[in-house]
Design a protein that fits this description.
Length: about 650
């Protein structure tokens, strides 16, 4: 059987994890070598992005393929792993050692009276105490909010009109048959917690605009108007959320008074909402000082890791006295999960978006019949395409299943749907091979597959023209230049290599140098900047994008004042960016280029995320061998959150 030293020598556990195991041996008197190895692997699994060590999945979590995928994701870090030693490693059957783990003096088992220990055994998982506490808080908070009693709406007749009426009669939802959008509107206004999930074009933001308008309208004449907060994980996602919600809808009439109210709302980053500062170990808002809002809407929730999710939920007012409390998450669980530990949104959603308990369904039917008697004659189960569950489960998730404003011949939508629905990889190949014929028929013109690993000359010429216009615009109108920036996005999985982000950035800058427009230093006008570190003083967060203007100052879309370059936190040039950093962004056209070698970082979620950043066209540059390999790999993070919610 392999020892703790064997796993350290192979690079599976690092020096810190090794020393923690030895410290536990010394402090707690633990002598069982298998238990000490389990403790070291628990901390290693947390470093790898899992919430803890799933005892019956240890060999999978620490397989050669999984470890390579993790280290491919850490290319900027100087980490050494000896994959050649992996075949020699053998794991104990930890699932069979549960009694040894439960009796360890260093481990608290949750089926026993509470004791503060560094490691927690909960079911089939080993956690560090901190990771267990965070996941436990998330699960309990979501269940408590979902079951929390909410106040009856002051004007139910007006609510019914907005939800069920036709547009010309003051209705704000789709004409015709009822659908999941109506269900989302009902959940969000009648429950303390709701998740609205869906891919691009399903109308998450538009539905949120209607929901907020309905809630604002209900309390306009109330002596205490609703307190509303909008938030997103990054500054650019917050700016896009603000812009979308303040935009006047084109397909239903929103009263000017309500539109004015919406225009008063401005999304901020979750860090700013909570008052998280690197100089303090505790956010400004927490359980002892909850957020002073009734309605909190969080966009791009797939980007939230378990740590940030636990801080956010800890700051929500759980007291029953606040009956106007509504927490609404928006997101697409098919996208890349958060870079940090866990994938909470994916765990929360699971298959729940089309499920409803029998009790919830009966309540829904009774409420809707009270709002509109015509509902009595409708087959709601079929109309909403719901699966009724005859047991008590968490069912506050709505998966939107209608795509709006997408052309019937959209190749982006078809390709994204095939990837999301786990279509056979070969059927995706058939679709990509058929693109030339489809283009001749005027179909799928928004997808171009370039079988190779370099940007074609004609496309490179278009990119150079775009960035010349961007640089020139930045000299005179930096804010407008940032809008122009979003016309094109160049995405890649890696920073290094000939098709990596650094090489592409250098290629663009070399082109600018030849035209005497920039690229000769770090201060030239028109240099796009990606912030890579949160900063309390400037309120910039990791992922924010700005540009150097003609005055040498740096402009950001979410800041009113420009900043000097010297005040910026760590940052990079960003003509091209990683797919991870592109989350929360949209571009008219996207160039997505994959490397010529197989890499563990290329996964189904990464490919789906890159493709869905494009609104009008995607240029997919990759050999089929690399693309098919990536489509067959999924990002997997061990967590017990889904089970806790069940």
């Amino acid at each position: 059987m392999s020892t703790l030293d064997d796993f350290k020598n192979a690079g599976v556990i690092n020096g810190l994890e090794y020393q923690i195991a030895l410290s536990i041996q010394r402090i707690y008197g633990e002598t069982n070598a298998d238990v000490l190895l389990a403790i070291a692997l628990t901390n290693a699994s947390i470093r790898f992005g899992h919430m803890g060590l799933e005892l019956d999945q240890v060999s999978k979590i620490f397989s050669q393929e999984a470890i390579k995928q993790y280290f491919d994701n850490q290319e900027d870090l100087k980490i050494h792993v000896h994959l050649d030693l992996f075949p020699k490693l053998s794991f104990p059957e930890f699932a069979l050692l549960r009694s040894d783990l439960a009796s360890s003096p260093a481990i608290w088992s949750t089926d026993q009276a509470f004791e503060l220990k560094p490691i927690v055994l909960d079911g089939d998982f080993l956690f560090s105490y901190q990771s267990w506490k965070g996941e436990d808080l998330v699960a309990k908070s979501i269940l408590a909010l979902s079951q929390k009693r909410t106040a009856k709406l002051p004007n139910p007749a007006r609510f019914a009109q907005r939800l069920f009426a036709q547009n010309e009669q003051g209705g704000w939802f789709e004409e015709g048959c009822l659908g999941r959008a109506h269900l989302a509107g009902y959940y969000a206004t009648h429950r303390g917690f709701c998740v609205i999930q869906g891919g691009p074009g399903t109308g998450k933001t538009t539905i949120t605009q209607r929901i907020l308008s309905m809630l604002i309208e209900q309390y306009l004449s109330h002596q205490a108007p609703l307190r509303i907060a909008l938030a997103a994980p990054t500054g650019k996602a917050a700016a896009r959320m603000t812009e979308s919600l303040q935009k006047e809808p084109s397909f239903f009439k929103l009263p000017s008074l309500l539109l004015d109210e919406l225009k008063q709302l401005k999304a901020v980053t979750i860090h700013r909402l909570l008052g998280i500062k690197s100089s303090s170990s505790k956010p400004k808002y927490h359980a002892g000082n909850p957020l002073p809002f009734d309605v909190i809407v969080v966009d791009e929730a797939s980007m939230i890791d378990s740590w940030l999710m636990s801080l956010l939920l800890d700051a929500i007012d759980m007291h029953q006295s606040n009956e106007r409390q509504h927490l609404i998450f928006l997101g697409d669980p098919e996208q890349l999960p958060a870079v940090g530990n866990g994938s909470p949104l994916e765990e929360i959603c699971g298959d729940r978006g089309s499920q409803i308990t029998k009790q919830s369904f009966e309540t829904l039917r009774a409420d809707w019949q009270a709002y509109d008697p015509q509902v009595q004659s409708l087959d709601l189960k079929s109309l909403l395409n719901l699966q009724i569950i005859h047991q008590d489960i968490f069912d506050s998730v709505v998966a939107l299943n209608r795509v709006h404003r997408v052309k019937d011949d959209s190749g982006i939508h078809k390709l994204a749907t095939m990837i999301k629905s786990d279509a056979d990889v070969q059927s995706i190949k058939v679709f990509l091979d058929s693109l030339p014929n489809l283009h001749q028929q005027g179909q799928s013109l928004d997808v171009e597959w370039i079988d190779g690993h370099s940007i074609p000359n004609a496309l490179m010429t278009r990119l150079e023209k775009h960035y010349v216009e961007f640089v020139n615009l930045a000299k005179t109108n930096p804010k407008e230049a940032l809008k122009h920036y979003n016309l094109f996005g160049i995405l890649a999985p890696h920073y290094s290599g000939s098709t990596g982000i650094y090489a592409i950035n250098q290629l663009i800058e070399d082109s600018l140098k030849k035209k005497k427009l920039g690229g000769w230093n770090q201060k030239y006008a028109g240099r796009p900047i990606l912030v890579t570190q949160n900063d309390d003083e400037t309120e910039l967060v990791n992922g924010d994008i700005g540009v150097i203007g003609g005055d040498g100052q740096v402009y950001f879309p979410n800041l009113n004042e420009a900043l000097s370059l010297s005040r910026l936190p760590e940052h990079k040039t960003v003509f091209a960016m990683s797919v991870h950093k592109s989350q929360g962004s949209e571009f008219d056209e996207v160039v997505f280029i994959l490397p010529s070698e197989i890499s563990g970082i290329i996964t189904k979620e990464l490919i789906y995320t890159a493709i869905t950043r494009a609104k009008k066209k995607i240029y997919l540059i990759s050999s089929w061998a690399i693309l098919s390999q990536g489509l067959s790999i999924r990002v997997e993070k061990s967590s017990s959150l889904s089970d806790r919610l069940s």
